[in-house]
Amino acid sequence: MDRFAIVGGKPVEGVVNISGAKNAALPAMAASLLTAERVVLRNVPRVRDIGTMRSLLDDLGVDSALTHEEHGNRLEIEARRLVNPTAPYELVKQMRASVLVLGPLVARFGEARVSMPGGCAIGARPINLHIKGLEKLGASINMEHGYVEARAGGLKGAQFTFDTISVTGTENLMMAAALAEGDTILENAAREPEVEDLARLLNKMGASIEGAGTDTLRIRGAAKLHGADHAIIPDRIEAGTFLVAAPLTGGHLILKRVEPAHLTATVSKLSEAGAAIREAGPNELEVEAGGPLRAADVVTAEYPGFPTDMQAQYMTLMTQAEGAAVITETIFENRFLHALELARMGADITVNGRRAVVRGPVRLSGANVQASDLRASASLVLAGLAAEGETIVDRVYHIDRGYERIEEKLARVGARIRRVSES
Ligand code: EPU
């Protein structure tokens, strides 16, 4: 298992190219199951979850080909036939987003068998709303032997209101409804940019989706969808992670290939905490410490609120800020595992349920820490950059799931970080 060895205390300075968004590329890959024609995806990040989704497509009998382009990968997918409608436990347990194939499979092929994801390090994360919504569209669902089995002899448009806002739930139903007969209205839908990006792709494929980016989606089903060519949006969480790295280390970064409009909540919170961030050009953000960092409370929320996927990285920043910051996590019930690891590096953090209080500034000291999930690992890498001495971050396979060679990107801007591989 690989680990990172980081020697902290050096400001990061330079230019970082932001990759395509993993959480937009995954649903786009699932959407390619909706047509027999070729779907070309560009700006696909070179991360492990994309490989896992390719393995899943391969298991289903779908061909995909990956080529490197100057920025990101180009992925061609042609779902001419389905050999097997099953998303097996081995893949779903590695990546919950595997559930995204459920809607497209049942809509196009009339059957899907997807392993139930089970628990997760950050919370229970049920998929009841994906299932309820598909039932509303006319699928019959059976749960047996740990699998969700969905069948339909043609889905029919319907009205469905999400009890809780769900990103992949919205994506799954949007994809299913795109091939259903008649109109579907999804209410209390997720407004995340990744949902909007999927709607753009589906519309290029011949679907008719209105309202993406709002909480009400209107989808007019099509009998058939066709191929498309689509560039994935930039990764707003990777960008947010680098926006933290600069003020945290007293450095200065220029982020290229970003979409500032997707980063409003993050930029505004980091600015409140003392970071100086400005648009340096089209799709560019410049960030540096604008003076001493100050504690600023934050509450995670669905988009356009402050992303739960930035909560861990923000917690690391708050260890270096003057005062007490209250961080409230509203999306997942157990997303503070990184707090315990940060405490081992000297952070002063008290966790009570969904609330954490971080008191700073403290001197972080390098230690051996363990990554528990993707964003938690990012917070530990950041902490390592700010800490005195050497930090070893273990289990970096978590970070490889969603960050494209983060150690190379950080090393290029001066960080002393290296990957240690165990054979
Ligand atoms: N929920 C339900 N029932 C459902 C679905 C969700 O109760 O059927 C609850 C969840 O338990 C959670 C809340 O609704 O409390 C929101 O979960 P959501 O379904 O929106 O999360 P997700 O779609 O599984 C995506 C991202 C996550 C990100 C969340 C929240 C992808 C592939 N994953 O997950 O990304 O944290 O939205 O923004 O898009 C990450 O990249 O590190 C990551 C975890």
Secondary structure layout plus pairing:
Layout: E1 3-7, E2 13-17, H1 22-31, E3 38-44, H2 48-60, E4 63-68, E5 73-78, E6 86-87, H3 89-92, H4 102-109, E7 111-115, H5 128-136, E8 140-144, E9 147-151, E10 159-161, H6 167-178, E11 183-187, H7 193-204, E12 208-210, E13 216-220, E14 228-231, H8 236-249, E15 252-256, H9 264-272, E16 275-281, E17 284-289, E18 298-299, H10 311-318, E19 323-328, H11 337-344, E20 348-352, E21 355-360, E22 368-370, H12 374-386, E23 390-394, H13 397-400, H14 406-412, E24 416-420
Helix pairs in contact: 1-2, 1-7, 4-6, 5-6, 6-7, 8-10, 8-12, 10-12, 11-12
The structure holds uridine-diphosphate-2(N-acetylglucosaminyl) butyric acid (EPU).
In summary, what is this structure?
Helix content is 31%, strand content 27%. The chain is of the alpha/beta class.
Essential attributes:
423 residues; alpha/beta; four-stranded mixed β-sheet; binds uridine-diphosphate-2(N-acetylglucosaminyl) butyric acid
Structure description:
With 423 residues, the chain is an alpha/beta fold. It is 31% helix and 27% strand. Strands 22-23-1-24 form a four-stranded mixed beta sheet. Strands 2-15-17-16 form a four-stranded mixed beta sheet. Strand 10, helix 6 (167-178) and strand 11 form a beta-alpha-beta unit. Helix 1 (22-31) packs parallel to helix 2, helix 1 (22-31) packs parallel to helix 7 and helix 8 (236-249) runs parallel beside helix 10 (311-318). The longest helix has 14 residues, at 236-249. The chain binds uridine-diphosphate-2(N-acetylglucosaminyl) butyric acid. Uridine-diphosphate-2(N-acetylglucosaminyl) butyric acid is lined by residues 23, 26, 96-97, 123-130, 164, 166-169, 194, 308-309, 331-332, 374-375, 402.
